[in-house]
Design a protein that fits this description.
single chain; mainly beta; five-stranded mixed beta sheet; four-stranded antiparallel beta sheet; 9 strands; 53% strand; elongated
């Protein structure tokens, strides 16, 4: 009698990535929330975080979603004195896993 091996587990992917609020003034913070399509595996799931303008919006290089959890929040800090204070910046904040990435836009203005 031949036993069929169990199917491989579905890959862990990003299901959503949101920022709240989506618009802040210089020096204020926004909160990012990363949600997975399933509970994080044993040891947790590391998610890479990048900012398209790291001099304006400062993010952690990565966050870890704890084992068994489906989401994790993190802070996005903003520069309180950018070089050009008259400008409004639209910063792409990206959350990424192998095989999946999501982008949210943070508007930073005076």
């Amino acid at each position: 009698d031949s036993t069929v091996p169990p199917p491989p587990p579905d890959p862990v992917l990003l299901s959503s990535f949101t920022l709240s609020p989506v618009a802040v003034r210089y020096g204020q913070t926004s909160q990012g929330t990363v949600t997975l399509n399933q509970a994080a595996p044993s040891g947790g799931q590391v998610v890479g975080i990048t900012s398209s303008l790291p001099s304006i919006a400062i993010v952690p290089a990565s966050i870890t979603i704890p084992e068994g959890a489906t989401s994790q929040t993190f802070q996005v800090a903003t520069n309180s004195s950018p070089q050009n204070k008259k400008k409004t910046y639209n910063v792409n904040i990206t959350a990424s896993l192998p095989g999946s990435s999501l982008v949210s836009v943070l508007k930073v203005s005076r």
